[in-house]
Amino acid sequence: MKSATVSVIGRPSAGKSTMVNTICEMKVSITSPIPQTTRNKIRGIYTDQRGQLVFVDTPGYHISEKTINRKMQDVTVSALGESDIILYVLDGKRAPKKEEEVLADLIAKAGVPVVCAINKKDILTKAEEEDMEFFLRNRFPSAPILLTSSKDDDGIDELLIELFKLAPEGELMYSESEYTDQNLEFRISEIIREKTINTLSDELPHTIFVEVSDLEYDEEEKKVWVRAFINTEREGQKGIIVGKGGENIKKIRKESFKDIKKIFPGSRLELDLRVKAIAKWRNNQAVLDKIFREMNK
Ligand SMILES: Nc1nc2c(ncn2[C@@H]2O[C@H](COP(=O)(O)OP(=O)(O)OP(=O)(O)O)[C@@H](O)[C@H]2O)c(=O)[nH]1
Ligand SMILES: [Mg+2]
Questions:
Q1: 3 by DSSP, 3-state: which?
Q2: How far is it, in rounded angstroms, from Cα 140 to Cα 148?
Q3: Is 171 helix (H, G, I), strand (E, B) or coil?
Q4: Helix, strand, or coil here: 293?
Q5: With a 6 A CB cut-off, is 42 part of the ligand 1 pocket?
Q6: DSSP states of 221-269 as a string?
Q7: Is the C-beta atom of 199 inside 6 A of ligand 1?
Q8: pLDDT digits (tens, 9 = 90+) for 145-193
Q9: How big is the CA angle at 276 (ends 288 and 228), to the nearest 5 degrees?
Q10: Sequence-distant (≥ 6) Cβ neighbours of residue 219 within 8 angstroms
Q11: What SS3 class is residue 96?
């Protein structure tokens, strides 16, 4: 049996979370077109007859001095040294510049075997593919370099073959039926954050964090009750989240409801969703500590 931890590293919006979800055939990690969607290390577990790969999705690596971005950078950098293999995901549409060079150097220095995935194959030109291959071949002379589409599940089987080749022999770390180890509150808050990000646009998504304040799950009665807060930074932003006549919040609620139900099949769900302003939370150490603490069971 093979068994390995695989850190999934790349710049924002490269398609890391989509890739983990495609591999695990489950929505493990939230995705959106807005860069810097993932904020924590999110584990997605893949098991087949070859063994088990535990993927650790990470926040997109982005160079910035803002406190929250530095926290996210720390999360990503800490994942580099903790894994058996690094899966380096690149957005093939974005020609590598300074930020990609800095990240590639960090990965090369980690002393861990690397597999590179040039992602978004579905929309790449031949020239874009070749430019990326050239960039990677210089820095990772012996690493497998694959073309993938996380969105279309293309090149993913080949990627798994390369990862299993590099994986050490070992016992399974999780049972075969597990696909993530996030706690329920965190999964619910992430679903609501995803629906909020995808309902709103522009900068607002970065000013949001979601907190599940109450969760009651009665397995016998098959009843779930959730109260969650969508927190933003200013009173004025609350109205944008709620929307005209409540249209945004209704959409966020409806879509969150659908996905949360999937976690509790057959149960009756009550979702109490509220919007709150917490001034400058992105500089508030207590809030940041809450957001960045480990979200596993
Ligand atoms: N065309 C195309 N789009 C993709 C592919 N993979 C992901 N995307 C899109 O790229 C955007 C970002 O995807 P995510 O999976 O959230 O990217 P990420 O790397 O996890 O982003 P962060 O969490 O912000 O670092 C979304 O709009 C995806 O639908 C792909 O293979 N092809
Ligand atoms: Mg992500």
A1: strand
A2: 18
A3: coil
A4: coil
A5: no
A6: TTEEEEEEEEEES-HHHHHHHH-GGGHHHHHHHHHHHHHHHHHSTT-EE
A7: no
A8: 999 999 999 999 999 999 999 999 999 999 999 999 999 999 999 999 9
A9: 80
A10: none
A11: coil
Say which ligand is closest to the CA of 9. 1
Q: How confident is the model over 62-119, as pLDDT tens digits?
A: 999 999 999 999 999 999 989 999 999 999 999 999 999 999 999 999 999 999 999 9
Place of tokens 């999110």: 42
Find the ligand nearest to 197 CA: 1
Query: What domains can you pick out in the chain, each with its CATH number?
Result: 2-166 (3.40.50.300), 184-292 (3.30.300.20)
- State whether the beta carbon of 120 lies less than 6 angstroms from ligand 1: yes
Smallest CA separation from ligand 1 atom 13, residue: 15
Rounded-to-integer distance, Cα 56 and Cα 47, Å? 14
Ligand nearest to the CA of 119: 1
Q: How far apart are CA 58 and CA 71, in angstroms?
A: 12
Residues 6+ apart with CB under 8 A from 233: 207, 277, 278, 279, 280, 281, 282
Does the beta carbon of 60 sit less than 6 angstroms from any atom of ligand 1? yes
Number of helices (H), then strands (E), in the chain: 9, 9
For tokens 């798994």, name the residue.
160
Q: Is 93 in the pocket of ligand 1 (CB under 6 A)?
A: no
247 C-alpha vs ligand 2 centroid, how far in Å? 27
Alpha helices, DSSP H only, in 126-177?
126-139, 156-166
Q: How many residues does the chain have?
A: 297
Residue ID of nearest Cα to ligand 1 atom 8: 15
Residue 105, phi then psi, degrees to nearest 5: -65, -40
